[in-house]
Automatic annotation (TrEMBL):
<keyword id="KW-0456">Lyase</keyword>
<feature type="active site" description="Charge relay system">
    <location>
        <position position="194"/>
    </location>
</feature>
<feature type="active site" description="Charge relay system">
    <location>
        <position position="196"/>
    </location>
</feature>
<dbReference type="GO" id="GO:0005829">
    <property type="term" value="C:cytosol"/>
</dbReference>
<dbReference type="GO" id="GO:1903600">
    <property type="term" value="C:glutaminase complex"/>
</dbReference>
<feature type="binding site">
    <location>
        <position position="109"/>
    </location>
    <ligand>
        <name>L-glutamine</name>
    </ligand>
</feature>
<comment type="similarity">
    <text>Belongs to the glutaminase PdxT/SNO family.</text>
</comment>
<feature type="binding site">
    <location>
        <begin position="47"/>
        <end position="49"/>
    </location>
    <ligand>
        <name>L-glutamine</name>
    </ligand>
</feature>
<dbReference type="InterPro" id="IPR002161">
    <property type="entry name" value="PdxT/SNO"/>
</dbReference>
<dbReference type="Pfam" id="PF01174">
    <property type="entry name" value="SNO"/>
</dbReference>
<keyword id="KW-0378">Hydrolase</keyword>
<dbReference type="GO" id="GO:0004359">
    <property type="term" value="F:glutaminase activity"/>
</dbReference>
<dbReference type="GO" id="GO:0008614">
    <property type="term" value="P:pyridoxine metabolic process"/>
</dbReference>
<keyword id="KW-0315">Glutamine amidotransferase</keyword>
<feature type="active site" description="Nucleophile">
    <location>
        <position position="79"/>
    </location>
</feature>
<feature type="binding site">
    <location>
        <begin position="143"/>
        <end position="144"/>
    </location>
    <ligand>
        <name>L-glutamine</name>
    </ligand>
</feature>
<dbReference type="GO" id="GO:0016829">
    <property type="term" value="F:lyase activity"/>
</dbReference>
Amino acid sequence: MAIVGVLALQGSFNEHIAALRRLGVKGVEIRKPEQLRNVTSLIIPGGESTTMAKLAESYNLFPALREFVKMGRPVWGTCAGLILLSNNAVGQKSGGQGLIGGLNCTVHRNLFGSQLQSFEAELLVPEIASSEGGPETFCGVFIRAPAILEVGKEVQVLADYPAPSNGLLEENVEEERRVIVAVRQGNILATAFHPELTADTRWHSYFLKMADDTGEEALSSPVAIPVDISCVQQPRNDLPIYR
Ligand SMILES: NC(=O)CC[C@H](N)C(=O)O
């Protein structure tokens, strides 16, 4: 059976491991470069990308993480994980931060604003709904969320969302500008929101199938989990902080 690594430096790694467990799959915590040799795929959780990058630097994890992505192993970044996987990031803290890279896009680190601007919203994601069944929509939990501004040709856009009018985009966003919040580029999956904080395991199940497609042995018999979409669709001031 596949063993999924979950980068466990900071952030929502326990929630990802719990979601995998609900699908009958073992997720193991990764903190050292050599631990990546024991896993066939990797989830990089949400949290705080600058802090995570500093910790990755001090554990000398960057070369092994970059190699893992380059080898074509399935990697999924949620929120801060998406930022770390991007080739270019704007809106970084002064001094910048290390990135793993591999995903050909430009991400804005905090486009949706601060913790107080966190929210839930229903997202239309036809690719995942057609692969995993259930309703057409997904609950996106956005916490100090990033957004993708630009992608290369090889990147498949899975979901977008109206850009916020908070002045963080240079251009005028009056004419319904949308930004990208979920993508796939070959072995890389990235979401600006947190599926691990919902009861819906379809994103995890899709990621496990990606591991299957890339020749890794994944779920032996997928467990059907009833899909519960209870999306409050409003600002949330009770979401985890993960700093
Ligand atoms: N929920 C999150 O992962 C927030 C990410 C945050 N915007 C960052 O820079 O890392």
